[in-house]
Amino acid sequence: MRGATGHAVHRVGRDHCLAPSRTADAPAGGARYGHMFPDLPSLICDIPALHAAGEPGGVCDAAAAQEVPDGGGDDAAGAAGWPFFGQVIAHDITADRSPIGPHADLAALRNARSPKLNLEIVYGQGPVGAPYLYDLHDPPKLLTGAQGLDLPRNSQGIALIGDPRNDVHIFAAHLQLALLHSHNGLVDRLRADGEPEAELFDAARRTLTRHYQWIIVHDFLPRLVGTQLVGDVIAHGGRFFSPPPGEAYVPLEFADAAYRYGHSQIRHTYQLQPGGPALPLFPDLAGLGPITPEHRVDLGQLFDLPGHAPAQRAKRMDPAKSPETSMSTPTARSRCATCYGGRPPACRPGKPSPPPWGSRRSPPARSAQAGPRGPRYGSTSSKKPRFTAPGISSARSAAASSPRYSSGCSVPTPTPT
Predict the structure, then answer these.
(1) 345 lies in a domain?
(2) pTM (2 decimals)?
């Protein structure tokens, strides 16, 4: 609709008043971080040694491995797009904007995201708080770029989206774009079904959020940790992490440890189109700029879709390359000693040494806290854990916490359309 001057006018019954009394589309505000296991001591290492480990030639330098063609020997079972989808989830529930540095005060850390799977990365602070995300000519819809083939951008090419991190590479950008199109498609469908115009935005947002949650719980997590563990968590709740309603937070053990697993599944090269060349992720596919025609991604290359050939696979997580075993070889120990000034990594002088590589620190004894979900971590009960997750132990912590705290409520189970 246009006014007398010819300029487009919003049709939604809202203004841009951000008075404290308005709760619609008010900023969600930050949330806190916390510890799942606060009694376990932290590993305190020599900071310069850590910097040395990440320098060229350091123990974390993957340049040599990146020069090796991907081939099929390190293929994971899952498709290549799932680790990127996991990154999008991380951006939806965590955003630590505090200065980077050691010895951070946990009480001072603020999470700029709410600990819920609510697609803040898509909707931002809503049409009132972030009007630049929305289509002026069709206000229930989200804005997309030229011809719908790119994210909306300002005159300097910076993406206008709910979280700028979803433009860091073209895969995150395409997943963000897919979410924008999904919302807009739901608006069209709901409008055709007779949904009142004033209710279109809220109805489309609610529907997309529920489908997104369904995909995470019933598709993403089972691929990550197995259906048995996911079913146990859904049936009994989180055993290691179950904060009271309204008091959810993101554990650092999850955000900064367990959920970093996806970094090890990123391939060096990817095909964007069937039969196209394999391009290195960095620097060729780095984002923060318009998506060029040659960098448009066929999502069938990232996910197994009906009617398409199998997608590329993610990179397999090789336990032989994990910290628990990588220090067992003379070469690794030699490189590590070089990076750490002639000595292996250890805690700072005067601090207890960390457990040996590959060992598992036993948790301190704690009195049993029986509850509706059974004894908690540290119980003196001799009963064995009721589940054993396949794969790495960090994935177990991630799954035990993710479905419960991320949604903030019982997760609906709609039938995907």
Answers:
(1) no
(2) 0.71
